Each structure stands twice: as C-alpha cells, then as structure tokens.
Amino acid sequence: MNTSLLSLKKLRYRPLPHLLGRKVTVARISGVESAILGELEPSLAKICKLQDSSRELALVLSKYGFLDLTFTAVAHLLKEDDCPSRSTLRKLSFIGAGEDRFCLESLIEGIEESKCWLRLFLFGEPAKDAMIRVFEQYKKYPQSTQTSAFESTVFRLEKAISQLADGVDRRLPMTFTIQDACLTNSDAIWLGSHSYL
C-alpha cells in the first residue's frame, strides 16, 4: 500500500444525510451563519462557528449561485469509526478512475486529527443564472488597450464579479437547499467532488 493510502487512515468523514434537501432562507449575506445554524439541530448549532467571511461568501454566490460553507466544530464529534470506506473515497473522487493526484495530496495535507469541520454545500439558484449575470456585468467594462487581451479579460471578469458581490444583498432574501453535508477532519474533503475556481 502506498504512503498516500496509509495517510488516509487518519481521515475522518461522516456524511450527514438527514440535512440533505433542507431549505434555508438567507436574508443578508452577513446573516448566513445565524440562518444556517438556526436550521441545524441545537446541539450541533451551539458548537459550530462559520469560518468563511461574508466577502468570500458574496464572491462565491455571485459567481456560481451556491454557498460552500466551512464551520469549525469540536473534534470529539468525529470518532474512530468515521474512517471512510474505499467506496466512499471513490465517490468523493479521491481514489479510482476519477482520481486526481493533486486532490488526494491536498486531502492528506488538510487532515488535522485534532480538528473537526462541518461542511455544507447549498444551491440557491442555477449556476447558469449566476454566470449570465456575471457576463452581463462583464460587458459593462470596456477592454483596456494598455494590457494584453488576456489580462484585460481577467481584470474585467474579476471586476464584474466583485461588483456583483458588492450588491449581493440586493438579490437576497434567497432560499438555499442543502445538497451536501458532512463532518470531517480535512478541509479539502470536497476538492474532488465540489471543485471550482
């Protein structure tokens, strides 16, 4: 067995299927933490703290139409028997046909035995709607003649997303649906299954 697979023995992962499909309405981007924790069982809500900043959430929501949330939780929530099976690692795209070496290495580097994260992935609107809004905003910024076409395009795209993030509260309230939920000791647990730039 190679070193990477041996290192995976330290990984802890517990899916939370009872949270899937749950709807959460967010009125303001700065209120994400309280809105989400208000929908969780009280015992879990009391021991979790959102790690993502409102700005990070606004950028992801503006660009993709979803929220990818990371909460810190107490490590004792994870047990020895929360070690994922090979089929679970395959489903998460860390081993098998879809395996990406970079993702596997990031997963292993992200393992912290004394930490626990609650991860939630929520859809608010179709990604195509978010992308249409980004490109409509992008068209408002003229191409610079002082930079290369690529640099100008990247700058204009970043500016469009930033502008949309600045006004994200104008598109709220929005109802989100929890698509994935887990407890884990690696902050890179979804790198293979929910990856985005």
Summarize the entry for a quick read.
The chain has 197 residues and is an alpha+beta fold. Helices cover 38% and strands 18% of the residues. The protein has a domain at 3-124 and 173-184.
List the helices and strands and how they pair.
Layout lengths: L2 H5 L5 E3 L7 E4 L5 H8 L2 H4 L3 E2 L3 H11 L1 E8 L12 H6 L9 H10 L5 E8 L3 H12 L10 H18 L7 E11 L13
Antiparallel strand pairs: 1-6, 2-6, 3-4, 4-5, 5-6
Helix pairs in contact: 4-7, 4-8, 7-8
Salient structural properties:
alpha+beta, 6-stranded antiparallel sheet, single chain, 18% strand, 197 residues
Write structural notes for this entry.
- With 197 residues, this protein is α+β, with helices and mostly antiparallel strands.
- It has a domain of 134 residues.
- It is built from 8 helices and 6 strands.
- Strands 1, 2, 3, 4, 5 and 6 form a 6-stranded antiparallel sheet that branches.
- Helix 4 crosses helix 7 and helix 7 crosses helix 8.
- The model has no long low-confidence stretch (mean pLDDT 88).
- The longest helix has 18 residues.
Describe the largest sheet. 6 strands, antiparallel
Estimate the strand proportion: 15-25%
Figure out the total of helices: 8
> In angstroms, what separates the terminal alpha carbons?
32 Å
Q: Which oligomeric form is depicted?
A: single chain
Rg from alpha-carbon coordinates: 19 Å
Mean pLDDT over all positions: 88
Morphology: globular
Classify the helix fraction into a percent range.
25-40%
Poorly predicted runs of 5 or more residues: none
**Structural classification:** alpha+beta
- Helix and strand pattern: HEEHHEHEHHEHHE
How many runs of DSSP E, i.e. beta strands?
6
